Amino acid sequence: MIIFRALGALLSYPSDDLRRALPEITEIIGRSTLVGAPHREELLALVDDLASGELLDKEENYVELFDCGRSTSLNLFEHLHGESRERGAAMVELKRLYEGAGLELGGGELPDYLPVVLEYLSCRELSEARELLADCAHIIEAIAKALLARGSAYAAVMQALLIVAGKKPIAAASAVASRERVDDPDEDWPEPPAFENVPMAP
């Protein structure tokens, strides 16, 4: 399902290549029947946001949002295991899942990086994608709440994934009400991975 590749692209680091792909991503979102019209509009609002303004500003916002606080990290296993050895073992299992589907990780991100997971799901049947997303829905919900509490347009991607997983999207009001504090970048800054030679993803 190409929609998963499009959603993964929206969560990737802003770049000129991403901006050039935004018209195609817009078409994919517009054709998708996996989410209703209101949530498609939220995704398209994110596309418009990424397309406008200075690219440097988008890059800085991305780093501040996803790389400086654990609550919005796009590395899924970090939410479960932090930087413990359990996370390393879980990533090895995820790598084996990719290999079992005939996909080999290249240089880039770790296997649990959400855009990488979505790229994998774009090559699988919808039923399998829904099952995997349902398994990690509690993590996606937590990220969605954190993004909504910050008023980030990126929350639209998490909301869409929850809908595909058969879950209810997060109400913005409840996300703001449940937020206890703003992340302290120094407290939540990710530590080095437990394993030095874990294969990276494209």
Summed up, what is this model?
The chain is built from 12 helices and no strands.
Structure write-up:
The chain has 202 residues and is mostly helical. The chain has one domain (2-180). Helices cover 63% and strands 0% of the residues. It contains twelve helices and no strands. It has helices spanning 2-10, 16-31, 37-51, 55-67, 76-81, 85-100, 114-121, 126-135, 137-149, 155-164, 172-178, 185-188. The two termini are 18 Å apart.
Map the helices and strands.
Blueprint: H1 2-10, H2 16-31, H3 37-51, H4 55-67, H5 76-81, H6 85-100, H7 114-121, H8 126-135, H9 137-149, H10 155-164, H11 172-178, H12 185-188
Helix pairs in contact: 1-2, 1-7, 2-3, 3-10, 9-10, 9-11
Overall pLDDT metric = 83
**Computed CA radius of gyration, to the nearest angstrom:** 16 Å
Number of domains: 1
Major sheet? none
The sequence of SSEs as H and E is HHHHHHHHHHHH
Distance between the termini: 18 Å
Shape by Cα distribution: globular
> How many H/I helices?
12
Structural class: mainly alpha
Proportion of residues in extended strands = under 5%
Helical content (DSSP H or I, runs of 4+)? 55-70%
List segments where confidence is low: pLDDT < 50 over at least 5 consecutive residues: 180-202
Strand tally is 0
Structural descriptors:
mainly alpha; disordered C terminus; globular; 202 residues; 63% helix
